[in-house]
Amino acid sequence: MSGAHLTYTYLEQLPVLAPSEYAQPVTWLGGEPPESWIRDRVLELTYTSYEMGPWAKRLGDNGAPFIWDEDRRFLMRAELDAAYFHLYDIERQDLDLVLDSFRAFRNKRPELFQRTKDEIIRIYEAMATGPYITSLTPPPGDGPRHAPGTSPLTRVTPRTPPSQPLRKLEKKGRKPVTDGNVGGALFGLDEVEGVDIQLDIFGREE
Question: How much is the pTM?
Answer without folding.
Answer: 0.71
